Amino acid sequence: MTDNEWLYCRECRRNTNHQLDFEIQSVERPKRDDEPPMDVDWIWQLLGCRGCGTRCLRAGWKVEPQDPWEWTQYPADSDTRDTKVARFYLPAAIWDLYDQTIKARNINALILATAGLRATVEAVCVNQNVRGPNLKEKIDALAQNGKLTAEAASYLHQHRYLGNEAVHDMAAPPKEEFEIALEILEHLLSSLYEIPKRMDRYVKLRTDRGASVHK
C-alpha cells in the first residue's frame, strides 16, 4: 500500500487520486472455541480526493500475511447519483417513473433504466394532454403545441430510439449514451415543470415587496 490510491470519488463522479490521511490496524482473534482458529487482520483508512478534497473511508481485511487486502469503500465505490429535479416540482406519475429510472441506473440495470426514460417521456405527453397513435406523434404534438421547441422535440426522438432498442431488442445502450440521454430528459423536466414554479415564486416575492414585474 502507498500513501496515494486510485479510488472512486462521489463528488467528482469518477476515479481520482486519493491521499491517505489516517489509518489504524488491528487483529481480530476468535472469541469462542467453536469459531474458526484464525486471526483476521483489519485496516481502516481515511482518504481524501486530491482533486476536490472529498473524503471516504475504506476497510480492508485478510487472513494470511501473503493474501491481498479485501477492500470495502464507504460510501459505496460506485457512481450512484440522486435525482436532479426535485419531487416537489413534478406530477406524481412523472416523479415515480423518473425516480425508478434513477434507481435502475444506480444498480446498473441499464435496459430497465432506458425503458424508464421512454416511459417518463410518455408520462410527460399524457400530463401535457397531447394525443397521438404513438410516441413519435405525441412528441411532435408537444412541439406543435408550443410546449417544446422543434430542436427539443428532436432530442426526445433520440430517447424514443434508445427506448425502442431497450424494450424491443433487449439491448442496453453504452453507459455514456444513457447518461447524456438522462441529462437531456432532466433538462426537459426542469423546463416544463421546475422553472415555471420557480418563476411563479420569483414573481410573488417581487410583487409582495412592491417591485415591478413583467405582465
What would you say about this model in short?
With 215 residues, the chain is of the alpha+beta class. The chain has five helices and five strands, in the order βββββααααα.
Structural notes for this entry:
- With 215 residues, the chain is α+β, with helices and mostly antiparallel strands.
- The protein folds into 2 domains: 4-74, no CATH class; 87-208, Up-down Bundle (Four Helix Bundle (Hemerythrin (Met), subunit A)).
- It has 5 helices and 5 strands; from the N terminus they run E-E-E-E-E-H-H-H-H-H.
- The protein has helices at residues 92-106, 110-127, 135-144, 150-168, 175-208; strands at residues 4-9, 14-28, 40-49, 55-62, 70-74.
- It has a 5-stranded antiparallel sheet, with no helix packed on it.
- A hairpin with a 7-residue loop joins strand 4 and strand 5.
- Helix 1 (92-106) packs antiparallel against helix 2, helix 2 packs parallel to helix 5 and helix 3 (135-144) runs antiparallel to helix 4 (150-168).
- The longest helix is centred in the last third of the chain and has 34 residues, at 175-208.
- The chain is elongated and about 75 Å long.
- The N and C termini lie far apart (65 Å).
